[in-house]
Amino acid sequence: MSDIKATMATFDFSTLQPDLIIDALQQLGLDVSSGLLALNSYENRVYQFSAYQGAAETAAKFVVKFYRPQRWSEAQLEEEHQFAFELANADVPVVAPLVIQGKSLHSYHGFYFAVYPSRGGRGLETDNDQHLAMLGRFLGRLHQVGSANRFKHRPSFSVQSQLIESQNTLLNSGFIPSYLQPAFTSALQQVIDLASQHYKPNSIIRLHGDCHAGNLFYVDQGPFFVDLDDCRMGPAIQDLWMMLSGDQKEQRDTLELILEEYEQHCDFDPSELKLIEPLRAMRMVHYMAWLTKRWQDPAFPMNFPWFNTDKYWEQQCLALKEQLFLLQQAPLSLVPQY
Does one domain contain both 149 and 200? Predict the structure, then answer.
């Protein structure tokens, strides 16, 4: 438990008070004319506000994001912003940070932060064929840009970062109930062993990295992402598999619909389908470890009250066993299997 508390000591938002936020914005020439509306974000602290900028006679709406200290380096954050600018310049619909006083990444009293234009939209409907087709076009264009260069500073999806390091966090946390430790530890190790055997991507590109329906918005012109906070290197299928649900036939039908538009812009390697279950295992284990590491942040017990209960760990033990079963099955195929 002491290790977790020591880790959390580097992730401290306690000094990020409203006065500090307003002062940080004023140093950029943003005269805040409204209150600060906290938006739904656990990893960072994000606020919407209205402000006058320069000689503007009317206030515009903005969003400011204060990055969690010690999570990303300055070089990694700048690389995220550069990727957003590349995508925007290629007419890929992402909301890029604003360049103010010659730069997009700013610092104030130990916090890195960025300002974005405020943009609203509706949630993407993953059961809507038209929405999925537009998503396919969007991701194809995003990956077309993503494959043109590589990140130098941001990490890659890997067995080490997503599984091994997460395993160490979980097993050293003291959170797993003693009666459940043997079964949980065994299931976790088997999942890691099998996922490690199967996760061998042929190529990796720059990705959005956290492409699920909750991170997508939709307007009449199409879908868009509001930021690229989790962008990293990885196989293209990472930005596709979380849109798939149901049995194998339903997943195949959805994927074919997405790929029909995706491949107008970017080739897809069908051999990456065998990476879906290893990537699902990575996400599952990494998510458990993420909650564990962040548990000392007051925002987490408030928003995840079900975490760190006996019932939660029992459910995760069962989920690991189910994932082990999926890892042992034949991967999804674009050709129906009889």
Answer: yes
